[in-house]
Design brief:
It contains eight helices and eight strands. The chain is about 40% helix and about 25% strand. α2 runs antiparallel to α3 and α2 runs parallel beside α4. It is globular and about 50 Å long. The protein has a four-stranded antiparallel beta sheet. It folds into two domains: about 170 residues, 2-Layer Sandwich (Alpha-Beta Plaits); about 70 residues, YebC, transcriptional regulation domain (Alpha-Beta Plaits, 2-Layer Sandwich), CATH 3.30.70.980.
Length: about 240
């Protein structure tokens, strides 16, 4: 696992059953709804544009995306009011976790996340106990597409990236949060294929675990990511 989110490392390999796809669409819809609260026009709301791009990349139906936008922009009364909450926790081996959620019932979500952690070798902790171990960044995943890795890294840095990290056939480009849009647009202008772009958290220090602890952590991450309200999980595992 690398410094980016756990989901980023496996999303392209994870087969989606119909039930799993429905769950993913629900989560993506909630993400679009929350982004649309800051404006329903993706041309004026970069965060909404990113959310819509992510939903489209997952083949989410157009009508569901439009419905989510209208709900967030206040043009529809369908559904409840969603809010973003980030829970801080420790997993097996004291791995630091930040659990990003979208919920219409914070009491329910808190109770369920706490139970999942307790049953799977983790524990929820007070606000500020873990977040200082991460820094906010913009994260862009670029397809290498057979291009020279070193040349792509250099081009990303010239486009304004603060750091780059390679994994398989992808290049993960990290920016300042406020520079995400600019760097993404420069990379696109230079012909790079953008697989995803989002605001993320990067660990300041990474840690290692024993094979047994890694297996326990992987199970915890799976059950967390299967929860209907969990959008993303960041960790500091090396």
């Amino acid at each position: 696992m690398s410094g980016h989110s756990h989901w980023a490392g496996i999303r392209h390999k994870k087969a989606l059953t119909d039930a799993k796809r429905a769950s993913v669409f629900t989560k993506l819809g909630n993400m679009v709804t929350i982004a649309a609260r800051y404006g329903g026009d993706p041309n004026m709301n970069f965060r909404l544009r990113l959310a819509i791009d992510t939903a489209r990349a997952a083949n989410m139906p157009k009508d569901r995306i439009e419905k989510a936008v209208k709900r967030g922009a206040g043009e529809s009364k369908d559904g409840g009011t969603f809010e973003e909450l980030v829970y801080e926790a420790y997993g097996p081996g004291q791995v630091a976790l930040l659990i990003g959620t979208a919920t219409d019932n914070r009491n329910r979500t808190f109770g369920e996340i706490r139970t999942l952690l307790t049953k799977n070798g983790g524990k929820i902790v007070a606000e500020g106990s873990v977040s200082f171990l991460f820094r906010p960044v913009g994260e862009i995943e670029v397809s290498l597409g057979g291009q020279d890795r070193d040349e792509c890294e250099l081009a990303a840095i010239e486009a304004g990236a603060e750091d780059v990290e390679s994994e398989s056939d992808s290049l993960f480009v990290y920016t300042k949060p406020e520079g995400l849009q600019t760097v993404k647009e420069r990379l696109e202008k230079n012909g790079f294929q953008i697989l995803s772009a989002s605001l993320s958290r990067l660990p300041l220090q990474k840690m290692t675990l024993s094979p047994e602890e890694i297996a326990t952590l992987d199970h915890l991450l799976e059950v967390l990511e299967d929860h209907q309200d969990v959008q993303i999980v960041w960790d500091n595992l090396s």
